[in-house]
């Protein structure tokens, strides 16, 4: 993918359009994140693709991406985190032949909001399916205290995060990190997951957690869908979830939202990661939001030349080159910017957009990159790096 350095906004847009088009699979109706590394559909990736197509003015492709996400919805309402295509199914993801049995951050509410704001007509069926997906989380994945839980690290989106270290996962940074060992451990955890009649994962005997970021994403998407449907119940659920986060997950010592261990786990749930800022997307507490967001530009915490590091740079777990152990991630930066804008922090939002653009271009439009030098990591190029165009003012 050619660099867009110096090409301005129009050059960025054409670069991203070309990236999405090169990864488009007409027979499936979606763009794959990366044809070699990620040949399937992933829930939040395709939701971000819908956002990008909408920003590029292609309502047809945006609608196809969002409908492709929701086409995998199970009978009970869960939206799977993967639909298989290309290379065939990953059978260790559950009992279903065409999709995984796990879910992922429900970014379809936000995708629908962006599309609606762009003047793209959403069908009643699409909106109903998005509502059913959020209903499923609310009705099937909520603790008695009102938080949303996940039953596998893959569901959280940050599957190799140091916050999961105390579940017995191998490859701690202090021991010499091994991504392959951690991936094997994640696969083994599927043997402890139980499933409902429609194939949806419902519990685990070894790993259950209430991640701060996943709760924030759910509340955010409830609110986004409510904004276009006018549904007061969705808005009330978003407010209740945000309040539960503030009461149960706010870590005053770190000035971040931390995760809660339900089955397994330990102190690692409080390791300072940038995902702990995501409560700023939904909290009604302005002081908490600003205290967390301020850390994204602080070099002693997450601040770095190519966008926020995923782990506090002063923490022993920080490794800027290792998957979910320190690199900068374009989808997180995009969501941080959403939080900045919600808090009226427009200068900070604009600054983050520039850092993210610099990282995307320097990395070759990578899946993630070293926040200190912009070196591309993971799959290169990856479609969600194109979120830089959605961050432009």
TrEMBL record:
A single Gene Ontology biological process assigned to it is: protein N-linked glycosylation
Q: What molecular function terms (GO) are annotated for this protein?
A: Glc3Man9GlcNAc2 oligosaccharide glucosidase activity
* Superkingdom to which the source organism belongs: Bacteria
The record's InterPro entries line, in alphabetical order, gives:
6-hairpin_glycosidase_sf, 6hp_glycosidase-like_sf, Glycoside_hydrolase_63, MGH1-like_GH
Question: Which SUPFAM superfamilies did the record assign?
Answer: Six-hairpin glycosidases (SSF48208)
| Pfam families per UniProt | MGH1-like_GH
Q: Answer yes or no on keyword Hydrolase.
A: yes
- Record keyword Nucleotide-binding present: no
Q: Which residues form the Mannosylglycerate hydrolase MGH1-like glycoside hydrolase domain?
A: 38-384
Tell me the keywords, alphabetical order.
Glycosidase, Hydrolase
Which family is it part of? Answer: Belongs to the glycosyl hydrolase 63 family.
What is this protein's name? Answer: Mannosylglycerate hydrolase MGH1-like glycoside hydrolase domain-containing protein
């Amino acid at each position: 993918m050619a660099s867009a350095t110096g090409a301005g906004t129009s050059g960025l847009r054409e670069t991203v359009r070309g990236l999405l088009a090169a990864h488009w699979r007409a027979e499936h109706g979606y763009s794959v994140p990366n044809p070699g590394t990620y040949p399937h559909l992933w829930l939040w990736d395709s939701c971000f693709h819908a956002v990008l197509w909408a920003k590029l003015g292609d309502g047809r492709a945006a609608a196809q991406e969002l409908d492709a996400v929701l086409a995998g919805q199970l009978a009970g309402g869960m939206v799977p985190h993967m639909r298989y295509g290309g290379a065939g199914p990953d059978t260790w993801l559950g009992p279903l032949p065409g999709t995984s049995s796990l879910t992922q951050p429900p970014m379809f509410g936000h995708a629908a909001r962006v599309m609606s704001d762009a003047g793209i007509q959403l069908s009643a069926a699409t909106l109903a399916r998005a509502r059913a997906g959020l209903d499923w989380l609310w009705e099937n994945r909520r603790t008695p205290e009102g938080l949303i839980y996940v039953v596998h690290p893959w569901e959280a989106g940050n599957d190799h995060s140091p916050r999961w270290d105390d579940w017995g996962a191998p490859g701690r940074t202090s021991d010499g990190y091994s991504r392959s060992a951690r991936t094997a451990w994640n696969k083994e955890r599927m043997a402890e997951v139980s499933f409902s009649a429609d194939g949806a994962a419902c519990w685990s005997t070894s790993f259950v957690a209430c991640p701060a970021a996943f709760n924030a994403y759910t509340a955010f998407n409830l609110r986004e869908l409510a904004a276009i449907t006018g549904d007061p119940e969705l808005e009330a659920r978003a407010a209740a979830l945000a309040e539960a986060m503030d009461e149960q997950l706010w870590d005053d010592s770190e000035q971040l939202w931390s995760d809660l261990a339900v089955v397994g786990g330990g102190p690692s749930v409080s390791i300072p990661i940038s995902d702990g800022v995501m409560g700023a997307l939904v909290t009604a507490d302005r002081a908490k939001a600003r205290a967390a967001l301020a850390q994204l530009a602080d070099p002693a915490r997450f601040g770095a030349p190519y966008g926020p590091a995923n782990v506090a740079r002063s923490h022993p777990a920080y490794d800027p080159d290792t998957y979910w152990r320190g690199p900068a991630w374009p989808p997180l930066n995009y969501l941080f910017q959403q939080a900045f804008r919600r808090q009226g922090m427009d200068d900070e939002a604009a600054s983050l957009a520039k850092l993210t653009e610099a990282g995307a271009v320097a990395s070759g439009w990578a899946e993630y990159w070293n926040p200190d030098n912009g070196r591309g990591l993971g799959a290169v190029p990856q479609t969600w790096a194109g979120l830089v165009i959605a961050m432009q003012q």
